[in-house]
Amino acid sequence: MTRADFYRRDRSQHPVPLSPGYKSTVLRAPLRPLHSVEQSALERSGPALGNTALGPLDHDLIRNAAQGGDALGERIYVFGQVLDENARPVPNALIEIWQANAAGRYAHVKDGYLAPLDPNFSGCGRCVSDGEGRYLFRTIKPGPYPWPNNGSDWRPAHIHLSIFGEAFAQRLVTQLYFEGDPLIPLCPIVNTIPDPAAIDRLVARLDMRNQEPFDCLAYRFDIVLRGRRQTHFETRPEGA
Amino acid sequence: MMIDRLKETPSQTAGPYVHIGTAPQSIGRPPLAGQPGPRVEAEGERIVIEGTVFDGAGAPLRDAMLEIWQADNSGRVGANGLFARCLADFDTGRYRFETVRPGPHREGQPAHVALLIFARGINLHLHTRIHFPEDRERVVADPDLRRLEPEARETLIATQEAPGHYRFDIHLQGANETVFFDI
Ligand SMILES: [Fe+3]
């Protein structure tokens, strides 16, 4: 059976490819219009990476690289629900994340920022959404860091996310930010997104009800992937 | 019945440190169990697809992540589809997939491999298709690709360097700018 197409990607909700304020886009953004084609069976399906057998600490960045102690920093949960544009939960979605440590330094050979590494933190995590599309990470809040763009620009605290839903058409890589961070409106990468309401949807919300008392704060971040077109066939009541 | 659709979460660049979360073995850390790499294990004729992503100044992208998704050797997708992920080489920018030749697609399309490109400076991943030079006539006749100028269509066809060994370079800008799709 051929499954339904996905809604066209609403590019007004995404960053502008050529955004000179973010200098790396100048030589890397394609300049010709994208070529519109029918979605094929390839794009309507995707790898079942949600079936990957994960390690028990893959979602716990406080412990998953520990060398005898917890990672340093503000202990947080990052959690939420993966939905599609039809507001249906997306179960079995693979979410991979990477982030800087509490001082703003990445455990990466190419990061030369002077802030210290944390021997108990690698900044790598992953999890799979459950039957209701819910996911949870435990980590530390990453620090902001400077980068050479317009002189020394500063990235707001952020976590990078890579998400696989059920189809290749839903593939998404993004970054989440933290409510109340004054660096968000100053960030050239954030500002590649023209729509302020779209930027707001990348901001994780402090959620005091879901804190772990005397342990962890909690930030909620819901993720919306593309949804399939509703066909009359699908919505016709049984027996009609 | 009309319902209020949610809006897709906006994309942001993968940035230069994508390796940490998607291929820790590429920066000297232990690999994660089951995490996809650049080699597909499946039945079929083994092929290699390699190449380089070039920016508008002709410099190779040394920090790109590429992902492929294709039919298996009998043309089946869905649960039988094949996926692989490759991080560009830090020194040369080269990527290299070892996979199997995809079987003929059911929809009358020439066999192809869907390719996604993520990198610093790419705000929303790019989507293109790798076709095989043996299928050139079908590529030319494909209803989706017929509308392209011949030179542009040529950017979607790999070059055979040896039997079963294909080169597919990607040009983000310039006279040879690769065709990217709005899927
Ligand atoms: Fe970052």
TrEMBL record, chain A:
Q: Name one GO molecular function term.
A: ferric iron binding
Composition-biased stretches, type Basic and acidic residues, lie in 1-13
Stretch list, region Disordered? 1-23
Outline the extent of the Protocatechuate 3,4-dioxygenase beta subunit N-terminal domain: 7-40
Q: Which InterPro entries match?
A: Intradiol_dOase_C, Intradiol_dOase_core, Intradiol_RC_Dioxygenase, PCDO_beta_N, Protocat_dOase_b
Q: Tell me its EC number(s), please.
A: 1.13.11.3
BP term (GO), one = 3,4-dihydroxybenzoate catabolic process
Annotated SUPFAM superfamilies: Aromatic compound dioxygenase
A UniProt-annotated Pfam family: Dioxygenase_C
Q: Where are the transmembrane segments?
A: none
Positions of the Intradiol ring-cleavage dioxygenases domain: 46-227
NCBIfam families attached to this UniProt entry: protocat_beta (TIGR02422)
To which protein family does this belong? Belongs to the intradiol ring-cleavage dioxygenase family.
According to UniProt, the name of this protein is Protocatechuate 3,4-dioxygenase subunit beta
From TrEMBL, chain B:
- Name the InterPro entries for this protein: Intradiol_dOase_C, Intradiol_dOase_core, Intradiol_RC_Dioxygenase, Protocat_dOase_a
Annotated Pfam families:
Dioxygenase_C
What are this entry's molecular-function GO terms? ferric iron binding; protocatechuate 3,4-dioxygenase activity
EC number(s) of the enzyme? 1.13.11.3
Where in the numbering of this chain does the Intradiol ring-cleavage dioxygenases domain appear?
A: 42-174
Matching entries from Gene3D superfamilies are given as:
Aromatic compound dioxygenase (2.60.130.10)
Q: What is the uppermost EC class here?
A: oxidoreductase
Which superkingdom? Bacteria
Q: Which UniProt keywords apply?
A: Dioxygenase, Oxidoreductase
Alphabetical list of PANTHER family matching this protein: DIOXYGENASE, PUTATIVE (AFU_ORTHOLOGUE AFUA_2G02910)-RELATED, PROTOCATECHUATE 3,4-DIOXYGENASE ALPHA CHAIN
Q: Belongs to which family?
A: Belongs to the intradiol ring-cleavage dioxygenase family.
Protein name listed in UniProt: Protocatechuate 3,4-dioxygenase subunit alpha
Gene encoding the protein: pcaG
